[in-house]
Amino acid sequence: MKRATHKVIVNRIHAKGKSMNRKSCPALRETGFTLIELLVVLVILGLLAGISGPQVLKYLKKAKTDTARLQVEELSGGVDLFNLEIGRNPSTEEGLLALVQEPDGASGWNGPYLKKKVLPKDPWGNQYQYQSPGKEGDYDIYSLGADNVQGGDHENQDVGNW
Fold this sequence. Notes:
The chain is mainly alpha-helical and 162 residues long. It contains three helices and three strands. A three-stranded antiparallel sheet has the order 1-2-3, covered by helices on one side. A hairpin with an 8-residue loop joins strand 1 (129-131) and strand 2 (140-143). The longest helix has 52 residues, at 35-86. The chain starts with a helix and ends with a strand.
């Protein structure tokens, strides 16, 4: 409605031959935003980002840990399939590579035992660790977390199959 009224006023002014500027035409004064209004909106957006930003980062860090857990489960499934077909777990020396490439002396190997046929890296870009026999079970598969050092908590915690 405001737009239609504005156009009528502008057309009437043009018809009378008067020049238009913001001071002489009240309809033109009402359009647009002032610098103050824009600054207030920017401040409000900044406050909202400051409040929700840390929460988003917290969820992102937790998502990486959850991704590592899922990948460890997938790798554990691959080791279990390897064991079913070969009759043993891959040795520490063979490592997780035995899940995607046939190791020497592994008759009955029918791999690769992972869906993507490549070894994934943990969400922080590091290789997963593997030990057989493991300290926690028949074999250990784990990521050292964001800091790539044993121990830690939150995003630096170790994530393993134990």
